[in-house]
Amino acid sequence: MINFQNVSKIYQSNSHETIALDDATFRILPKEFVSLVGKSGAGKSTIIKLLIAEEKPSKGKVTMGNYEVAKLKLKELPSLRRRVGVIFQDFRLLPNKTAAENVAFALEVAGRTQEEIEEYVPQAMEMVGLKDKMRNFPKELSGGEKQRVAIARSMINHPDVLIADEPTGNLDPINTWDIIKLLLKINELGTTIILATHNKDIVNFLDRRVISLENGRVIRDEQKGKYILV
Amino acid sequence: MFLTKLFRTIKYGFLRFWREGSLSMATVAIVFLVLVGFGGLLLFNAISNKTLGYIQDKVDISVYFKTDANEDEIIRMQKSLQQMAEVRSVEYISKDRALEIFKERNANDPKISQALGVVDANPFGAYLNIKARELKDYAAINAYLDKDAFKSEVDKISYTESAAVIERLKKIKTTVEQSAFVLLIFIVATAALIIFNTIKLAIHSNRDEIGIMRLVGASNYFIRGPFLVEGILYGILGGVMATLVIGGGIYYFSPYMRIFVPDLDGWNYFISNSFRFLAYEAFFGILLGVVSSYIAVRKYLNI
Fold first, then answer.
1. What does the pLDDT look like over A199-218, one tens digit per residue?
2. How far is A222 from chain B (nearest CA, A)?
3. Which CATH number among 3.40.50.300, 3.30.70.3040, 2.40.37.10, 3.90.1150.10 corresponds to the domain B60-134?
4. Does B3 touch chain A (CB under 8 A)?
5. For residue A89, what are the contacts with CB-CB under 8 A and spacing of at least 6?
6. What ipTM does this complex have?
């Protein structure tokens, strides 16, 4: 279970301060599919950064299971990040590794054996429909294919939570729906999904829980929500 | 588990090196150039030391005895000199041997042979050739020979003649050693900076990649390892290439070196020391490669 309790994130600069998240409180249960919606700068990415400990909250507490994320030491972060899969708008694949090596990398950092890697990687590549492109480098793949490799990589360690930060932002409509279907399939298999997006069609199609953000504040939290922003 | 990690680290180090292609080659080229400078200086130092040693070996003190000097006294003097810590060797040349040497040297000059035939007695006195361990020791030996006790038997001592040569050689040796040391420090510092910056730039271009590895859950060891392996590869390849190029240079210039120092066989000297030389080059290269990589990666690990 993920818990945000009165969390604020304030960026200080020389002359002024920017409030990226303002007193946010919500809870996400296991196996939920939650969409975070809002305009650019509403606080969606800040929530994700706080979840994967890329940033620390200025106030409040972020907990995942029994851990308070901000209190984890630098040494403990790798094990947290292996339990949370993340996919980004810009895919963030390792450019010097093939598609299969990118996926295998997540297993290697978790200390899996070569036999396990040889067994699981083709399975994951098949799940995302890219078994025939395992040996291709990222620059040889289309945007949709890159995102599917990123999903395979994020799922290979069977994380409890999959966080998707604008995963369809760089994709055409056909690839967009492929990725969303893939996320739904992963959710059906029992993984919590947190999807940050400002794509109205997707949110309305999903008909799942929606947390709406504006200027860093949670303005709406509905179990079967729609994309409603002023 | 440890072996698997080690194997993966080495594998990814090699893969990175191979796939980065031109960037790796550019870095190796810089390491190579710097190591040629470093190796050239090491070799220059070794050869100049050998040359100085050769010239130093030509310096000695000769004590010429009067023709009627008592041979027992000369032998006693030889033994007492041999006991001095400063003395490396004392060679005794008897009156008869001195005559023979003179005859051999002037065998082609009939006038001298004739002149010698006219003289009944051997006109040469015996002498001692003394070599010191170090150039600075000649002064002590000379002071010892200057004692009154020896004056009755000694005709002349040649130190005064070689004194100027010895002094000049001493100065040259000190200057060469000091400037080589300063130059070595300068080159090592410059090399370290150039290699460090080159590797830093290479790693800087991978900063996003390091960030991605962190986000996927890679530990610092797992991220840093392949970069260190890459640093080792830069050092080894740069070192081997520098040794080959310096070897080629010595092979080419060796005959010219002999013109200055006949006893110096640069090529043979290089061959007999090539492994040690390669080890120095590779060690220096690897050290710089690994330390630079370690420091450069550290900057991007706190994500």
1. 889 999 998 999 999 999 99
2. 30
3. 3.30.70.3040
4. no
5. A165, A166, A167, A169, A170
6. 0.77
